[in-house]
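Table S2 (text version). Query chain:
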Amino acid sequence: MKKSLSIPSANLLFLVTMLLVIFVGSIVQVLHLSWGLIATEVFLIALPAILFLRARKIPLKEGLRLNRISLLVAVISLLLGISTYLFSVLIELVMANLSGLPSVDLSQSALPQSTFQYALYFVAIAISAPICEELLFRGPIQTAYEQRKSAAFAIAIPALMFAFYHFRLSGLPGLLPVAFLFGYVAWRSRSIYSTMLLHFGMNASSAVITILALSGNKFPNALFSNYWILGSGLAVTLVLLFIFIRLQPKPEPYEAVEEPPVKWFKKYWALIVAGILYAVVVGLTLYAQLTGATASTNLTYTRPELTAPVESRYQSVNHAGDVVGEMNCVVTPQGETFNLVCDSEVKAFEIKIGNSMWKDEGHTGKLNVTWQTSTNDLLDYSYVMTSEKGGVMSALLEDGNLVYTTPYDEHSTALPEEFLIDFEWPWKVSSLDNNSGLFYKSPYVYLNRWDNDAKKNVTLIQDELIHITGEETLNLPAGEFKTIKVTLGNQTAWYDVDDASAPRPVQFDDGMLIYSLMK
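Corresponding C-alpha cell output:
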C-alpha cells in the first residue's frame, strides 16, 4: 500500500498554499510579474507540498506520483494541452463578452517588453506553473482523494480546488473543463508527468500567443477572431482523449485505506474556509472593477490613421425604435490638428416605456470639435442646438472654461485639464489606448444636467467609469460590423474592429437617441 496524505491534511495543504499565494504571492507579482510568478510557484506552491510529504515521512516519488509514462502518452498529453487551450480560449471570450469582465485583468505595464523579459515570462507561465501546480494538485492532493474515494469524487474535488485556486470569475467557466481534464488524465495515468505535459501544452500556447501579441504580430488577433478554429480545439481534444484512453489502460483501484473515522466538518473545514476566501477575493475584485476603484485614470490615445476626410451618415432612432432624424459628420485631417463637424436634425417625439419617458420638441444641432493630432487633446469645442420653437442653446470652449447659454441663462464653468464632454466623447474614445486594462475613469462634462440644490439645469462635471466590455456583432443600415463595445455612464458606443481609418463610432447611444451608421 502506497502512502499518501490523509484528506484533512491534503485540504489543509491546499488552504495553506492558497493563503500564501493571496498574502505573499500577490505582493511579489506586483513587484515583478514574471519573477513574482516563478517565486510564487516554486516557494509558495511546490515547496509546501514537498514539506508536507516530508513531515509525514511519505516518499516523494509516491506522494508526488513521479511515475514513468510512455513516449506516445507523453506526446498525446502535450498535444492535448495545445488543443484544450483553443477551446478554453473560446469559452473565455464568450464569457468576457457576456459579462464585460476580463478573464485575467493585467496591466500592460506589468507585461514583458523585451526579448529577455519574453523569455522570462515564458519560463514563468509555461514551465514553472505546470511543474509546480501539478506537484501540488495532481500530486499529494489528488492522491489523497484517489486512495479513499471513488474515481469520480477523486477527480472532481481536486479539479474544483484547482479551478477556484486561480480566483477567476468570468474566466472560471473556461478553466473548469480544463481542471477536470487534468484530473482525469492524472487518474488514468497515475502520473503527474502526463498532466505536466498537458499543462505545459496549454500554458506554452498561451505564453507564445501573448508574446506574439506584445511584439506586434497580427496572428493572435486573427486567431481570436476565428471562432471556428477555436471551436475545432474541442473536436481535436476529444479525438486525442480517445487515443489517450486506448493507449493508457484503466488503473487498478487502490487498496482500501483503514483510518479512524473523521467527522465531515473536521475533514472538509479547510475547503469551507478556502471557499469563503474565494468569495471574498473575487467579490472585492468585482466590486473594485464595477465601481472604478481600480480603473486607470491615465487615458492615453493613439494617433488616428487619418489621411483624407471621412464622411459618416447616421440615422437617429428613439428608444421605441422609431427613426426620428439623421446626423451627418465629417472628420477632416488638418496637419497638426483634425476636426469633426456634425449636423443633426431630430423630429419631435414623446414616448413612455414603463416608468421612463423620453421627449424632444424637435431640434437641429451643430457640433464642431478640433483635436491635436499627436495627443488627441481637445483644442476647440462648440455645440449649438436650435429647437423647432426657436430657442437656442450653445456651449462654447473659451480659455479653459465652458460657456453655456440658453434663452434664460448663461454661466461659465471651469474645466479640468483632462476631460471628456457630451457629444465629443464617442469620437475621442475610439482612439483610446486600452493597454492599461478594460476599466478607466475620467472627468466627464455634462452640458445640461438637473441640479437638485440649484433647482435648475447646470453644467455638471463628475467622474465617470469607461468600460470596454467586449466584442459584439451589429447589423446596421450600413451593413454588418464586428465591434468593440464601450460604455461611459449610461451611454454606449460601438467601434468597428476592422477599421482604424478614422476616429468614429459605428453606433452610439447617448441616453436619448441611438445613432446608427447608414454609410
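Notes on Table S2: The mean pLDDT is 90. The longest helix spans residues 115-146.
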